[in-house]
Amino acid sequence: MSTASTPSNRSSVGRDRRRVVGVPKLCWCGQSIVELISKSTPNPYRRYYQCSLAIQEKLSNDQHTCKWVDEAYLDEIESLCARTLSLQEQFE
Ligand SMILES: [Zn+2]
Q: Taking every annotated instance into account, which residue ranges of this chain make up the domain GRF-type (predicted)?
């Protein structure tokens, strides 16, 4: 039991599912990613990305890539902001 190596200053998601930063292009299993719309009650009509193999096999997606589209976009924006900042520092 060790919780030493997990930097979590931003803890909106407690699961280990967010391995991919930004918009996922491929699942780790090599399958393509499909964009779907959630029909679940807590997140109606929320868009998400899921591994096409997981959909095909009707896996309950705790192994394969599954990520909300809005969170993926947030990641992209955050990484862009970080890059912009470091570029600004270089030119100042
Ligand atoms: Zn997969």
A: 27-72
